[in-house]
Amino acid sequence: MDAKYSGEMLKHLEKQNELLMDAYRSMSHELHKLQVEEEMLMRKFYELMSAQGFTKKDGVGKDASGDNRSGESTAPVIKDGDELQ
Known about the structure:
Layout: H1 3-52
Region (Disordered): 56-85
């Protein structure tokens, strides 16, 4: 590379680095917001399922975090025309 262009190239690369870091921070912040929202929605969903009686309250099949990890869904299956009782 020609020495006379190295200064311009350095400035260009520094600008690109700054733009990439801004994009990284922005995406990282958005990811964190979505993770918090997911956790809130999962807690609300669990509360709803508990209120409807679809979750096991005895702790069987739950890990330390309280999540059901047995691989079996407790969600009701509704066919066309059927109503949830």
